[in-house]
Amino acid sequence: MLSFFKKPRFRGGVHAEEHKTATAALPIADNFPLPKKLYIPLQQHVGKPAEPLIMVGEKVLKGQLLAYSQGLISAPVHAPSSGVIVDVNDYPAPHPSALPIRMIVLETDGKDEWVKTQTVDDPFQLNPEEISLRVGAAGIVGLGGATFPTAVKLNMGRENHVDTLIINGSECEPYLCCDDRLMQERAEQIIDGVRLMLHGMESEYAVVAIEDNKPQAYLAMLAAAEPYPTVSVIQIPTRYPMGWDRQLIGYVTGKEVPVGCRSSEVGVTIHNVGTAYAVHKAIRYGQPLLGRVVTVAGGAVKRPMNVEVPFGTLISELFEFCEVDKEQTARIIMGGPMMGDSLPHVGLPTVKATSGILALTQSELKNTDEQPCIRCASCVSVCPAGLRPLDMANNIRINQLDAAVDLGLKDCISCGCCSYICPSNIPLVQYFKYASGEVMARQQAQHKSEQTKRLIDARNARMERIAQQQREDELARIAAKAERERLKAEQEALV
User: Fold this and answer.
1) Strand spans (E) along 161-250
2) How many other C-beta atoms can be found within 10 angstroms of the C-beta atom of residue 148?
3) CATH: 1.10.340.30, 3.90.190.20, 3.10.20.30, 3.10.20.600. Which one for 294-364?
4) Which of 3-17, 61-75, 349-363 has the lowest mean pLDDT?
5) Cross-strand bridge partners of residue 343
């Protein structure tokens, strides 16, 4: 089975300081106290936000459906615990802007009482389509950070006749250890989820790829997969960003995903280990996705740990549980330090994409004193997408965004390798994030302008048709009147 996989040269990337020792050896903490209130966003996934179907004042049970998915690319939201719905309104989003988004506020009753769930004795007797339906109903999305609805990827895999499923166990971001601990402690459940996804996609093989800095996780997963010849577990080099889907696909299979194409088009689909664990719980026990393991780490954290928390938990409560020193906290990051988002305050909730919350001290932050570019091309050598970051940044500085797009701006994955390696401390990835947002805003404005023009043209055409019809009606009226007068004159002449 292993001979099927090829291992070409790893392109770009950096050996970032790991900062994982504080949490990697600690078991997952499952004693987090249930919050009194949970703030549950309706938008925790790629696609359209879920639409609430509950009312304020309604009592709900753990696992009960709170909001249904809208359209193909969407995901439902469920109650992480039992209690009473006290509000459905706009609250600050877990995003650098902290702009308000719609949330359901659940006041927990402390009972954590489950709704009745549907268990399956032998899920491998289910139709593959039924696996996808149940995964979709459970609200499962990619827990590696992309938050793309998992059921959609399963369906795409089946429709495109994908033969290989890759389970991403790289967890290459510094500080983060939640996937590592999940593989060490719940390997059998993850492998069961992998086999269920294979069944749902009607695929042949699965390979679990784990970075070689996680030996305990590798051994645990290897032992759990040993009875199943269709599932292989391999080690891959520790190098950021090995977790990028195209990089991982290239290393494991030797295949290259063309620009603008999905991995399923080359016969490969990637899912995260946390996603596989969630699929196991959804199919075996009928449990929707209600929470996840989150790494809480950083120099300001007195008790760093991997802790299992329900979605909607405020970061402030996590920090209190982990004894975070507020005075020492210089920056709060959701996710990892390379690709995560810097948050303005702790009054924001955890969501499906929350793999980690970091409280970093000033000493852990990179020097931000920007110096002139020395043309060393280090950013070029580490870019996993094969781009020229310094040239793109120069074009962005002079507002030549079209030129930056021509150089590959849309292929940038915002991994941050260029900023990390730059000896001049140039915030390259910030330039690219700004430019990507500006290009999107311009495209949206252009689309809106074109749509407005189409509406105006359609209105003008409609008004012209109405005017033309009115002119024709007027001419017909005049002609009819003339005809009546002619007939009347003839009649008078005969008399």
Assistant:
1) 164-169, 205-211, 231-236
2) 18
3) 3.10.20.600
4) 3-17
5) 332
Which overall architecture, per CATH, does domain 2-288 show?
A: 3-Layer(aba) Sandwich (3.40)
For the chain, first and last CA: distance in Å?
Answer: 110
Tens digit of each residue's pLDDT (9 = 90 or more) over 27-77: 999 999 999 999 999 999 988 999 999 999 999 999 999 999 998 899 999
Would you put residue 271 in left (φ > 0), alpha (ψ -120 to 50) or beta?
beta
CATH 3.10.20.600 region(s) of the chain?
A: 294-364
- Per-residue pLDDT of 262-304, as tens digits, reads 888 899 999 999 999 999 999 999 999 999 999 999 999 999 9
CA 272/CA 277 separation, integer angstroms: 9
| pTM of the predicted model as reported, rounded to 2 decimal places | 0.87
Six token digits for residue 485: 């007068």
CA 298 to chain CA mean position, Å: 23
Residues in the chain, overall count: 495
- The strand pair at 268-272 and 231-236 is best described as unpaired
